[in-house]
């Protein structure tokens, strides 16, 4: 029987239990609590009783008959029976001597072995004309051995048959392991699939080094990671031998496995602790045990060695059973990857120990792992991001295949593939939040995602899946990381007559939305009820103007409640066209609305969290247009509704309506995360890339400003996988500045989004009063009229009307009048009317919210009403003539916010340093009395200036300057410079270089995520006590911390959790006489460095910290205050080896700068900070607000001045003076962005501009 799409869809439903079979010669009974003993091994196959199972196709059956005849002749036995595959045996397994012929796509019994990773034969492996032969000793514990003759095509199968017949020497067939692989397969394997002496010697030496580095410690992540690396090497070597039959790989596998066993058996408790370190997601467990189950009978391990390995595997899977995610998992809940990976590993390990050793504990293991799948209430995942959403379907599919439960494929595969397809644009790029990288690292062929699409292509025959995969492989970004292509093993690739190659893909609807699953919805609303019903939710929504490679794709998110969560409901998470990416999304380290393409609401100086769901109001593709409308309700005092309209993808009208629900003071922004060099002119934002560009025309009263994203762009778009077409990343902000608003007020944004080849998409747009806007593209024109139409011949109660060259679209109507004839509908409708012949049709407003029937096929309703009318173009023109003002509305001259055009009065220029300025610091040398201004540049220089602007020295450093800091020890002053070039430079105050220390820069120490590059922070800490010399504690772009002595020697290194180090402060936080370090990391926990170990605080309800400071306490050691990306400031105490949370204060935006201390005697201790919410804030030591000053732009620096007061430096050259109560004392706009503000007692205040000019006042 074939494993075909129909047998899966119709024939599934039986949930197979684990069949233990009978105790016998193939089973070693283990008493409860005892270490199992090796099972008996006899690899022989009785050819007198063997059954040949060949695919149910004439040519394959003929080949099976030829094999049977050849066996009879060569072995002198009766001609064996040739059978067809049986689906029941996929579920139960089988006993007795068996030969399986074929591959995954044409032999359902072999498909079960594929699922168990015993025989990974499909259309990729062993490749065209290749074959793979292997004896499996009692694979199901039911008695009897199976020989696999695996081949992806008939030519390979014929060669396999010839080889097997040639190996027969008597009536019992000995152990078989042979492989003849296609060149492409061979090239994808380690060392081209050949473990020659040079390779083997090198690998054995590396193995000895890795095994020798294992340390039996508890709680040390680096030590745990090394043990995890050994597991990975065992998998790689064992898998390579299984696939190639090369004995060199067998030697390497044996060496690693025995070394691992020796360590685990000698140190079971530390090994268990290391295996359960959270860096181990148990992604190697299934392969580890499956390869062992096949290879343990090869005779390369003695009985004593098998016993050692078995004991270590027993310890390993006992640890697996105590994985913290499995222990915490509820019996029934929607699952996510951190639960599913260890669960699949545990099921595989338990399956082995039950089948072959009757280990009682393994029954509990199996049940615990199976609970994750049996109790999963969601088809896809509780997760949020595009790549994470595919992890669970992959694992669930593997679970169903491993355990013989076809219903798991039926229940999950089609919806999973459809959602995945929704998140892949026409360039083959995957978009969406979560762990997905905006470019290059996470996509259709990474993390195993292709498995879902390959399987769906095979089983359902929809060519769309294969087309999108092909775009990823051959499209404009084919140079991305694609490990699934580099090594497509076990990716369910089937290209035989039943499953491929696919035909031409029909275009899907021009807009589709995918709903939130009931299981996910129920889980979240059980603790946090929602006013949005489940059938009005959506997960992702995509506009796709056909399947052409240049056709625009625009995607929105509707879910903010999942794991690896983003607060991006209603946000545009991707826009691509003309083979370019124009709007991109962030990863989970920047999850707030500030970092998405959507609206930001700051009310009374605070930002509140979005609800979990976004309501879908409309989503429909009708003749002439595709439309969506979605709403984030009751969010921070507002309802935010986003409407998207497109005719053919040539442009998108995007309407954002924010309705005020509660009185308050509101700042409302609309953010656009654009890729390309951005400029503003009039009402137009223009993002230019090589040979293509995007425009966003603003047709409302908002003000416009831009800023460049440096670190994020360099990290994600120009590092490992460079995006070739853009030179920068630009954020466009559209602003309705903060002011008092009343309930019932409305604020809006009207935008036209378009793109095209070259430098100009050729589109113009105009605003005609408050109701009408016009878009012209070439010689065609469209008019959007908002609100009802009231005319004798043409009227409706629709929300808006789009009048195009030949068609009228009416949205949200329940009544229309066409040429005097009234039509009423029982529900809201999207109506399309031909202006050429008057024909019309009304469609349900949510016709393209995806639903499935019982057979798993999508349901798409047709019109709710339709007919003909006398309406023609002249009727629409008459309506426009009556409603349109005499002239269009001109763009006001102050619409664009930018740096000033001249130097503000009362500020005088002191100096001009060449180059772009990236860091500043002011330091006073001992005995001098006058400060030095130190300025760092983009091109790697540090320049020292006197208070009157004279340059006294200049030093060259390696790379862009990230930070300049001054330190004092034993009356010795030292300036440290942290560079993007991974070096710490130590200078004397006269500019002499004291030393340079290169910080390790291996790939493992510079992870690609985040926004930081190179060395980020250098802090002085008396980590060994005040009586000892301090260390310089160096932080980096990826969580590594190094302790350097005063001479620059590295004395210590460790890893924190997790990602880049934004800021740090050292003090004696626990009163033990030694300094500890409080670290602000990009993600996820507050962390204390304490005596060479790290201590994590409690989860902070979202990713990331940006700044950290200390506050003195009268009753003990100082407390710690953190500024976060989550719009708040949090305090902690460090006591008893734990971080204890204190107060928390919402500050209305990501904290951009924070300093704590006593700056003015009359004020006392305070925390001064700036935010992306356009505020400068002072908090008292208890977290209560002292003042909140409205600055009008993102605050980058907030410094206390010697004359009581503060200076707030913001984007676009803005500087604001404040008095101690936060009242404004001055406002200046400089002609460049401000790179630093420096003050010193008795000296002038200094402002350093990014272009190198220095001003004093």
Describe the overall structure.
This protein is α+β, with helices and mostly antiparallel strands and 1257 residues long. 23% of the residues lie in helices and 34% in strands. The protein contains 23 helices and 68 strands. The strands form 15 sheets. Strands 26, 27, 28, 29, 30, 31, 32, 33 and 36 form a 9-stranded antiparallel beta sheet that branches. It has an 8-stranded antiparallel beta sheet with strand order 15-16-17-18-25-22-21-20, with no helix packed on it. A hairpin with a 5-residue loop joins strand 44 (983-987) and strand 45.
CATH architecture of the domain at 187-486: Alpha/alpha barrel
Rg over alpha carbons: 34 Å
Structural class: alpha+beta
Query: What is the overall pLDDT average?
Result: 94
Q: Tally the beta strands.
A: 68
Biggest beta-sheet profile: 9 strands, antiparallel
Low-confidence stretches: 1-25
Percent in strands: 25-35%
Proportion of residues in helical segments: 10-25%
Query: What oligomeric state do these chains adopt?
Result: single chain
Number of helices: 23
Distance between the termini: 87 Å
Here the CATH topology of the domain at 187-486 equals Glycosyltransferase
CATH class of the domain at 187-486: Mainly Alpha
Tell me, what's the shape? globular
Question: Brief overview, please?
Answer:
InterPro entries: PQQ_b-propeller_rpt (IPR018391), Quino_amine_DH_bsu (IPR011044), TAT_signal (IPR006311). The chain has 1257 residues and is α+β, with helices and mostly antiparallel strands.
Features:
single chain, 1257 residues, alpha+beta, Chitobiase, domain 2, Glycosyltransferase, Beta-galactosidase, Chain A, domain 5, 9-stranded antiparallel sheet, 8-stranded antiparallel sheet, disordered N terminus
């Amino acid at each position: 029987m074939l494993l075909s799409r129909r047998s899966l869809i119709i024939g599934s439903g039986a949930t197979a239990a684990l069949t233990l079979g009978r105790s016998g010669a193939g089973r070693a009974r283990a008493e409860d609590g005892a270490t199992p003993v090796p099972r008996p091994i006899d690899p022989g196959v009785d050819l007198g009783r063997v059954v040949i199972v060949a695919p149910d196709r004439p040519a394959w059956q003929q080949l099976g008959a030829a094999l049977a005849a050849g066996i009879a002749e060569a072995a002198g036995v009766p001609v064996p029976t040739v059978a067809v595959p049986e689906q029941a045996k996929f579920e139960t397994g089988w006993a007795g001597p068996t030969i399986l012929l074929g591959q995954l796509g044409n032999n359902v019994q072999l498909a079960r072995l594929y699922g168990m990773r015993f025989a990974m034969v499909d259309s990729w492996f062993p490749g065209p004309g290749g074959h793979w032969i292997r004896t499996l000793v009692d694979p199901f514990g039911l008695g009897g051995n199976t020989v696999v003759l695996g081949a992806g095509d008939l030519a390979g199968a014929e060669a396999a048959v010839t080889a097997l017949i040639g190996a027969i020497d008597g009536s019992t067939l000995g152990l078989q392991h042979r492989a003849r692989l296609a060149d492409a397969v061979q090239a994808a394997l380690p060392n081209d699939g050949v473990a020659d002496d040079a390779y083997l010697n090198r690998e054995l030496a590396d193995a000895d080094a890795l095994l020798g580095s294992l340390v039996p410690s508890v709680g040390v992540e680096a030590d745990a990671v090394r043990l995890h690396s050994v597991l990975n090497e065992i998998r790689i070597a064992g898998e390579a031998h299984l696939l190639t039959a090369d004995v060199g790989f067998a030697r390497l596998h044996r060496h690693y496995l025995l070394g691992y066993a020796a360590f685990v058996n000698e140190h079971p408790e530390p090994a268990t602790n290391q295996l359960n370190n959270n860096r181990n997601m148990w992604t190697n467990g299934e392969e580890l045990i499956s390869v062992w189950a096949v290879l343990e009978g090869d005779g390369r391990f003695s009985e004593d060695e098998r016993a050692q390995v078995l004991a270590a595997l027993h310890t390993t899977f006992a640890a697996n059973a105590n994985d913290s995610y499995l222990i915490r998992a509820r019996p029934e809940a929607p699952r996510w990857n951190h639960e599913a990976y260890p669960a699949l590993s545990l099921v595989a390990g338990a399956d082995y120990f039950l089948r072959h050793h009757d280990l009682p504990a393994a029954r509990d293991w199996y049940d615990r792992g199976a609970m994750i799948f049996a109790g999963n209430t969601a088809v896809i995942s509780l997760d949020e991001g595009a790549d994470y959403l595919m992890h669970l379907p992959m694992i669930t599919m593997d679970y169903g295949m491993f355990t013989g439960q076809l219903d798991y494929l039926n229940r999950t595969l089609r919806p999973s593939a459809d959602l995945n397809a929704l998140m892949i644009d026409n360039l083959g790029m995957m978009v969406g939040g979560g762990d997905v990288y905006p470019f290059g690292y996470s996509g259709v062929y990474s993390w195993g995602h292709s498995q879902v699409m390959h399987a769906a292509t095979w089983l359902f025959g929809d060519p769309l899946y294969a087309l999108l995969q092909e775009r990823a492989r051959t499209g404009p970004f084919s140079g991305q990381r694609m490990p699934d292509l580099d090594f497509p093993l076990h990716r369910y690739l089937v290209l035989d007559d039943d499953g491929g190659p696919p035909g031409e893909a029909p275009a899907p609807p021009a807009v589709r939305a995918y709903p939130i699953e009931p299981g996910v919805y129920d889980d979240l609303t059980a603790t946090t009820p929602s006013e949005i019903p489940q059938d009005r939710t959506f997960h992702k929504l995509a506009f796709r103007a056909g399947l052409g490679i240049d056709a625009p794709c625009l995607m929105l998110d509707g879910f903010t409640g999942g794991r690896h969560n983003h607060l991006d409901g209603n946000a545009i998470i991707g826009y691509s066209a003309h083979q370019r990416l124009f709007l991109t999304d962030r990863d989970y380290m920047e999850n707030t609305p500030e970092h998405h393409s959507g609206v930001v609401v700051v009310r009374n100086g605070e930002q509140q969290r979005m609800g979990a769901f976004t309501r879908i109001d409309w989503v429909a593709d009708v003749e002439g247009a595709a439309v969506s409308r979605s709403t984030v309700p009751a969010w921070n005092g507002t309802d935010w509704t986003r409407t998207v309209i497109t005719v053919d993808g040539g442009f998108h009208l995007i309407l954002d309506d924010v309705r005020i629900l509660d009185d308050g003071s509101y700042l409302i922004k609309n953010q656009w995360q654009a890729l390309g060099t951005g400029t503003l002119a009039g009402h137009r934002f223009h993002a230019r890339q090589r040979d293509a560009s995007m425009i966003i025309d603003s047709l409302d009263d908002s003000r416009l400003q831009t800023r460049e994203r440096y670190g994020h762009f360099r990290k994600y778009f120009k590092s490992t996988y460079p995006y070739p077409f853009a030179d920068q990343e630009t954020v466009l902000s559209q602003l309705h500045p903060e002011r008092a608003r009343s309930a019932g007020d409305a604020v809006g944004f009207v935008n036209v989004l378009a793109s095209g080849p070259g430098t100009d998409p050729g589109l113009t747009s105009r605003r005609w009063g408050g109701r009408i806007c016009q878009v012209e593209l070439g010689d065609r024109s469209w008019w959007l009229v908002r609100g009802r139409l009231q005319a004798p011949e043409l009227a409706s109660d629709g929300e808006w009307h789009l009048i195009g060259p030949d068609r009228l679209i009416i949205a949200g109507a329940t009544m229309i009048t066409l040429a005097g004839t009234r039509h009423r509908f029982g529900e809201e409708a999207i109506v399309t009317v031909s202006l050429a012949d008057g024909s019309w049709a009304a469609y349900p407003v949510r016709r393209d919210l995806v639903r499935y029937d019982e057979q798993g096929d999508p349901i798409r309703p047709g019109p709710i009403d339709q007919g003909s009318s006398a309406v023609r173009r002249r009727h629409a023109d008459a309506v426009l003539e009556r409603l349109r003002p005499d002239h269009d509305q001109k763009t006001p001259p102050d619409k664009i916010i930018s740096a000033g055009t001249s130097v503000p009065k009362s500020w005088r220029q002191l100096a001009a340093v060449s180059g772009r300025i990236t860091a500043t610091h002011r330091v006073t040398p001992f005995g001098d009395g006058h400060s030095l201004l130190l300025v760092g540049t983009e091109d790697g220089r540090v320049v020292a200036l006197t208070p009157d602007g004279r340059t006294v020295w200049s030093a060259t450093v390696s790379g862009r300057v990230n930070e300049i800091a001054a330190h004092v020890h034993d009356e010795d002053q030292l300036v440290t410079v942290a560079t993007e070039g991974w070096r710490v430079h130590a200078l004397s105050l006269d500019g002499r270089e004291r030393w340079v220390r290169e910080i390790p820069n291996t790939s493992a120490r510079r992870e690609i995520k985040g926004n930081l590059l190179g060395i980020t922070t250098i802090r002085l800490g008396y980590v060994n006590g005040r009586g000892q010399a301090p260390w310089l504690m160096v932080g980096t772009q990826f969580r590594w911390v190094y302790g350097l002595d005063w001479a620059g020697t590295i004395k210590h290194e460790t890893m924190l959790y997790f990602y880049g180090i934004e800021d740090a402060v050292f003090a004696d936080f626990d009163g033990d006489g030694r300094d500890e370090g409080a670290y602000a990391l990009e993600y996820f926990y507050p962390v204390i460095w304490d005596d060479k170990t790290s201590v994590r605080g409690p989860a902070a309800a979202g990713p990331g910290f940006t700044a950290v400071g200390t506050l003195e306490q009268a009753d003990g050691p100082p407390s710690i205050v953190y500024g976060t990306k989550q719009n708040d400031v949090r305090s902690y105490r460090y006591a008893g080896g734990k971080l204890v949370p204190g107060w928390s204060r919402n500050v209305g935006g990501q904290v951009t700068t924070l300093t704590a201390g006593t700056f003015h005697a009359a004020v006392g201790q305070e925390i001064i900070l700036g935010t992306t919410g356009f505020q400068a804030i002072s908090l008292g030591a208890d977290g209560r607000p002292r003042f909140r000053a409205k600055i009008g732009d993102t605050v980058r620096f907030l410094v206390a001045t010697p004359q009581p007061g503060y200076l707030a430096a913001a984007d676009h050259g803005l500087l604001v003076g404040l008095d101690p109560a936060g009242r404004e004392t001055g406002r200046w706009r400089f002609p460049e962005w401000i790179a630093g503000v420096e003050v010193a007692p008795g000296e002038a205040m200094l402002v350093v501009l990014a272009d190198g000019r220095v001003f004093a006042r």
